[in-house]
């Protein structure tokens, strides 16, 4: 927990962020934004005005195809399809902002570590150290099918990612102190003796080279991680600066933090990585208006689209299951952490498959903070204080109205209470997040 609440804006470069069919809402501009970077840039500037630490892109580079073993629901309803690349978009946002952090999810599945380091470190160097990487190991079957890859079992994906990270660190550490001379008179760019050569021959990867980019002022991108199974957390404790978690409610968040801190202590990770919880504010002038707004959003969610997404994430085809039965924990090679959180819900009666699907359609299980700006600020501050979390990944529902409302109405309240910065805490993303 830092001195301040940290906020990251949670986005996807697709027709929706996390709310199925949000693109069809009369006030939503995402259909336009898909083909117009200037709308993303306007939103990024609003986030910067609101001192968000970063814009953070989730990414699943494949189609949700588990439900009934077909892609049609995802395609029909635009459920994260098309699935456009986030890093390309971050390049444009980097050029149009000076402070906002730039975080992208990039899966270790399809790309060689050299490609990912090259792509992200180029952006990190050129943006003055504003980049974050959400390391995911590829839980989506559709991602493997898209790239023609064999799906590895859950834990082996993390084993492979361990080797992946070894190469990443070697590349990030390759350029030593004082290596770059850049002397126009002598024509010497760098001292080869200060640039470490990597000779990696491993089980999954080979890599023989030097760093593809120079280190930024923060050295390497800030590392985010979101796996919450036992194996996922062990990986996070080793690598993550910030862990991003989804818990369905406040008791779940409290339990997550208690367990997380115990795991960190038992593995000797001190201080523990910061934890940000995903949330979806629904803001209006009054609580009643906000509830009505939420109902309107819920009512337009097609159940099939929501279940298609749920099936994809959980790695289970739910088409044969009774909608009104409680969701039982099932074996999966998909997201074990999310399966556990929603089938063993803390502090509520067990959720049926229908309940979970609706929550997935709304915001992949992230809880809604519904009310007036003051009420939303209250919930954010209370959870921050009671759980000791680092902050929140805030997913908007209607674009860009939800971002505008939050920045214009909730941020000033948090600032007045002294729990949110009134200026950026540093130049690099690491500094902004109080990780330095
Ligand atoms: C908050 C959150 C965000 C995630 N974002 C992505 C994402 O953008 N892309 C992706 O492929 N997986 C994403 N995942 C999946 C996880 O990174 C992880 O691969 C999956 O949950 C399986 O790991 P686990 O069983 O250890 O939880 C996310 C998970 C959570 C909890």
UniProtKB/TrEMBL annotation:
Keywords: Flavoprotein, FMN, Monooxygenase, Oxidoreductase. Belongs to the NtaA/SnaA/DszA monooxygenase family. GO terms for molecular function: monooxygenase activity. NCBIfam families: FMN_nitrolo. It comes from Novosphingobium anseongense. Residues 40-390 form the Luciferase-like domain. This is NtaA/DmoA family FMN-dependent monooxygenase. It holds the Pfam family Bac_luciferase. Its EC number is 1.14.-.-. The keyword Nucleus does not apply. The keyword Oxidoreductase applies. It comes from the Bacteria.
